[in-house]
Structures are given as structure tokens and as C-alpha cells.
Amino acid sequence: MTQDEFKFLQALMQRRAGIVLWSEKQYLAELRLAALAPALGCQGAEEVVARARQGDRELELKVVEALTTSETSFFRDIRPFEQFEGVMLPALTKAREPVRRLRIWCSAVASGQEAYSLAMILARHRSELAGWCIEIVGSDLSRAMVARAVAGRYTHFEVQRGLPVRELVEHFRRDDDGWFVSQALRDAVDFRVVNLMEDLLPPGPFDVVFCRNVLMYFDLPTKSSVLTRVARTLAGDGYLVLGATESVVGLNSGLAPDPANRGLYLHEHAPSLQPA
Question: Rounded to an integer, what distance in angstroms lies between the CA atom of residue 161 and that of residue 143?
Fold first, then answer.
């Protein structure tokens, strides 16, 4: 792949997904497009790029999906899930008792493990949440990832990465191809294709928004723009959860760290909810 071809890919990723494709990723990009080529009837990565340069938006999207990192696992980086169960859920159920409704959005959800992990936590509290209306929305840029999430099928390797045995036994069933999520858990999550660069985000307000390990792929102006749009979907006293290396500081998004709970973010001047 020539430098000119790679520069085209960098511009395409920035324009369609807001993602910065660093120069050291050129070899990886070539490998991924070479793997995509047969499905497109192309002879190699160079032909994929040549066709993408003709302005075919559908093919452009397939290239973007192929070059987007979709790394995830069940209960990945366990602390946010402990905070969800130990801090956010008690505080929000206390605050929302009059309406008995909770809405959660997992953006950049990849193949669905994050959303299903939250659904499993909520299932642990099904008795105290009886009669509540609870909505979990999981979204991703990649149509292929969303299709995988909806299907709820995972390999042996995937269920061994962070999934507690008790959750595996309760919520999964095994077949010849691996493991599949129970119908009850699949019914608990609404998966959608959403591009965070676009204005058509899931309509809020959401009480909790997970937006983890995605801002790291954006430049500063894009981070600020995405966070500002995400903030508009967050309830006035809702929680935003970012990745461990991410922050809202200096991005002028109207969000600030929760002074009582490290790693969580709130609307500026919003009171930190206290668990019951």
C-alpha cells in the first residue's frame, strides 16, 4: 500500500468516523483490507482502496468497519461494573422511585458484552426492581458488530474472558458453535447502529451512559464534539462512564468529574447522588 493510498484511508476514517488512523497502523490497515478484499470481489487491499476512492458510500462504510477496533469482553475492567452495582444503581433507584424507570446507553458496544454485562447485574436485583421499566440501549458504528450482539453468540474464548461462572451458568446455553445468551437477556437490550459523529444519537434522557475506550481514537476537537452531543442525552443527575485513560477535563463538554466517585462524570454543578 502506497503512502497516498494510506493518506486516503486516514482522511476517510476521520471524515466518516472521526477516528485518527495513526501512521504506525498502516501495516494493520493493509492486513485488514486484504482480509476484506475477497468478500468485495477485489484482488487485494489496493483494489479495495481504489474502489473506495470512487465515492461508493456503502463500500466506504465497509472499509471503515474493517479498520475500526472492536476489542471488548464481559465485565471488562471490572471497576465500572462494580461502581454501577454499588454506587450508580442504588443512588438512581432511590432518585427514580417516583417514576420507577431507568434508562442506560452503552455506546461503542462492539459485539455486545458490555451491555449484556449490565443486564446480568440488573438481573441480580430483579426482585427489588420488580415493576420497574428498565431500558438498555447498546449501539455501535459497525453493522457487523451489532448483528453479532443481537445474535448473542460467543465463542468459548469469549465467555472465558471476564465472565463469572455463575453468570455463565445462569444466562448462557451451550451448543456446538459455542455459547449463546438466554432469550431473557437478549430481550433486555435494544441494539442499534449509531455513529457517534452524527447527530442522530439515541434519544435521551439516559440515567447512565457508558462511553468507554472510544474517545482515545479521536483528536481533541472530535472528542469535544462527541462528548457535547453525548452530554445532551444524559439526564441532569445522570452518570457518564469513560475508559480508565479517558477524561472530560479540558474538553468543554459541560461535564465534570464526580467529586464523590472517581471515574464517574456528571453535568457540571449537578449534585452527586448518594446511594440509599
Answer: 23
CB 133 within 8 A of CB 56: no
Query: How does strand 255-257 pair with strand 153-154?
Result: unpaired
2 Cβ contact list (under 8 Å, min separation 6): none
Please measure the distance between the N-terminal and C-terminal CA atoms of the chain and give it in whole angstroms: 58
Instruction: Retrieve residue 39's grid coordinates.
Output: 468478500
Grid cell at residue 129: 426492581
Q: Which of 13-17, 68-72, 156-160, 233-237 has the lowest mean pLDDT?
A: 68-72
- In 10 A of CB 156, how many CB atoms? 10
Residues 232 and 236: their CA atoms lie apart, in Å, by 9
Q: Which helix (H) or strand (E) segment is 275 a member of?
A: none
DSSP conformational letter for 84: I
Q: What strands, in cross-sheet order, belong to the sheet with 189-193?
A: 189-193, 133-140, 101-106, 206-211, 234-242, 264-267, 255-257
Cell 479517558: give the residue. Answer: 246
Cβ atoms of residues 215 and 223 within 8 Å: yes
**The C-alpha cell of 188 is what?**
433486555
Kindly state the DSSP code that residue 216 receives in the 8-state scheme. Answer: G
pLDDT at res. 112:
96
175: left (phi > 0), else alpha (psi -120 to 50), else beta? beta
Residue that has been written with the C-alpha cell 448462557 in this structure:
172
Pairing of the two strands 101-106 and 133-140: parallel
Q: What digits encode the pLDDT tens for the residues 191-224?
A: 999 999 887 899 989 999 999 999 988 989 999 9
d(CA 167, CA 165): 5
Indicate the SS3 state at residue 77.
coil
Query: CB neighbours of 16 closer than 8 A, spacing ≥ 6?
Result: 60, 61, 64, 195, 197
